[in-house]
């Protein structure tokens, strides 16, 4: 998993590897990451999840080898 | 062409690459670092991106805009790293046969970029450092 911007600062990590149960969804993985890193503050506008460089539905199942990224709402431009 | 770079871009160079006999107009948007944000003085800005995903998203937006507005070509340049007040942040340059297509495509690209490209700004202001929140970036 890769973390960016405020999520990277809150977790103190750019990336981390986790053994995940089969069939875990993006939404459940998000809950798992939040539970691991108590400082994650959802008041700041939420956490977005992307898999392999694309936004996904919360029900998307994580597969072996997927690159999962967590980050706050974007603010480029 | 999509580029994500640390150093500044040359507008002249970018425009030169868009000029072709079939092109009747070029519209550019340049986003720059403002000296003030929410009533606070901005000293500098840091831009972080998720390069692989940003490239994918920008490429998709570029292709959508070319198709939808019949633009001839679009060049998008976004900077990252440390920026000072007045520095260029982003360039969207669109060439088309006629001005309407160029204006519409340029507007579309910058609006979509702000919605779905994984890039984040951190402002260092008189009251401290904070990540720019959504809806405050217009």
Task: Please mark out the parts of chain B with pLDDT under 50 across 5 or more consecutive residues, or reply none.
Answer: none
Total helical segments of chain A: 2
Strand content of chain A: 15-25%
The largest interface is:
A-B, 19 and 30 residues
How is this structure best described in words?
The complex is a heterodimer of chains A (77) and B (138). Chain A has 77 residues and is of the alpha+beta class. Chain A is 23% helix and 16% strand. Chain A has two helices and four strands, in the order βααβββ. Chain A has helices at 5-11, 26-36; strands spanning 2-3, 48-51, 54-55, 68-71. In chain A, strand 2 and strand 3 (54-55) form a beta hairpin. The model of chain A has no long low-confidence stretch (mean pLDDT 89). Chain B has a single domain (2-131), classed as Alpha-Beta Complex (Aldehyde Oxidoreductase, domain 3). In chain B, the strands form two sheets. In chain B, strands 3, 4, 6, 8 and 9 form a five-stranded antiparallel sheet that branches.
Distinctive features:
A: 77 residues, alpha+beta, Ubiquitin-like (UB roll), 4-stranded mixed sheet, B: 138 residues, Aldehyde Oxidoreductase, domain 3, 3 helices, 9 strands
In short:
The complex is a heterodimer of chains A (77) and B (138). Chain A is an alpha+beta fold.
Topology (SSEs and partners):
The complex is a heterodimer of chains A (77) and B (138).
Chain A: E1 2-3, H1 5-11, H2 26-36, E2 48-51, E3 54-55, E4 68-71
Parallel strand pairs in A: 1-4
Antiparallel strand pairs in A: 2-3, 2-4
Chain B: E1 2-5, H1 11-18, E2 25-32, E3 36-37, E4 40-49, H2 51-69, E5 73-79, E6 81-84, E7 88-96, H3 99-116, E8 119-125, E9 128-131
Parallel strand pairs in B: 1-5
Antiparallel strand pairs in B: 2-7, 3-4, 4-6, 4-8, 5-7, 8-9
Helix pairs in contact in B: 2-3
């Amino acid at each position: 998993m890769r973390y960016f911007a405020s999520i990277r600062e809150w977790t103190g990590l750019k990336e981390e590897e986790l053994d995940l149960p089969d069939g875990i969804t993006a939404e459940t993985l998000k809950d798992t990451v939040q539970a691991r890193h108590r400082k994650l503050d959802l008041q700041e506008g939420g956490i977005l999840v992307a898999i392999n460089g694309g936004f996904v539905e919360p029900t998307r199942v994580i597969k072996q080898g997927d690159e999962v990224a967590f980050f706050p709402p974007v603010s480029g431009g | 062409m999509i580029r994500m770079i640390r150093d500044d871009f040359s507008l002249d160079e970018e425009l030169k690459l868009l000029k072709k006999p079939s092109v009747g107009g070029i519209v550019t948007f340049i986003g720059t670092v403002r000296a003030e944000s929410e009533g606070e003085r901005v000293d500098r800005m840091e831009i972080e991106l998720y390069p692989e995903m940003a490239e994918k998203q920008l490429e998709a937006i570029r292709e959508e805009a070319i198709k939808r507005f019949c633009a001839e070509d679009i060049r998008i340049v976004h900077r990252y790293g440390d920026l000072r007040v007045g520095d260029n942040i982003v360039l969207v340059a669109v060439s088309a046969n006629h001005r309407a297509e160029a204006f519409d495509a340029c507007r579309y690209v910058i609006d979509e970029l702000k919605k779905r490209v994984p890039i984040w700004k951190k402002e260092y202001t008189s009251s401290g450092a904070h990540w720019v929140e959504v809806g405050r970036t217009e």
